[in-house]
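User: Show me a protein chain along with its predicted structure.
Assistant: Here is one chain, sequence first, then structure tokens.
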Amino acid sequence: MLAVYGSALRMTEDHDAAQQTLVLALERAEPTGDYGLLGDLLQRLAYVVADRCGDVHRAARLAARATDLHLLAGDLNAVGKSLVDRGLWLYELSQFDEVLAILRRALELLADGEHRNRFSAFQLLGLSCRELGDLERAQQYVSLAAELAPRVGPWLAAKLLRLRARIAVDRQRYLAAEEHLREAIEDFLSISAGEAALATAELVRVLLLQERGAEACETAGTMARFIIPLEERSPVAAAAALNLLRCGQAGRGITVELVERVAEVLEEERARPPRRARSGR
């Protein structure tokens, strides 16, 4: 119960309380000798540590310890799930070759019914292959993830759409990228203003790459709906979105370079803890 409560607190971005709850759960679970439970708690704590203070190295160490505990418990499916988590943290640390090795092993261990973890593994493999410049292999992994998208919910499915759009841009398939981004924006609108704003900025860039300046300005104008929600979380992200909005309204000044700077700020800011968490309130 404490494990689930701690994860729920993380989802509400109350990271201090989430960490305190999960540490308490670990203290109470330790005497039981339940390796599987301890491994699960460490995996949950790793996400909180990464969210709360950005300590991805520690998150990776916690996930590695979880793998050891699941091995002691003899639960190979749980080992596979912990390897997916390790793949995520190693991706954040730009250790892409290790990500490939770990996630391929994870897919061998995960049960067929582990749709969410298998989806995440395929998506991370696609991301890593893209970073390594292997677009053909990246596309193959993304296609495998897309087969599972209907089973994992709108949040993960929308993030996959954005990845598919980025790979399409890399391959200069702009119409396909545009289609993926428009669908992603619609999915993100009811979930996250930050993610929807980022996808919108990327759509503006794709339109500019197709020399469709008027449509790019019109699309930039839709950033207005994100300003207030972004301001509540990050004034920096809101300011970047406002800059793009004003350029769109003026009908001039929008360049690929400007949009890329705005997208970079939006992506950096979405990874930061919200102001409440940073101030400790």
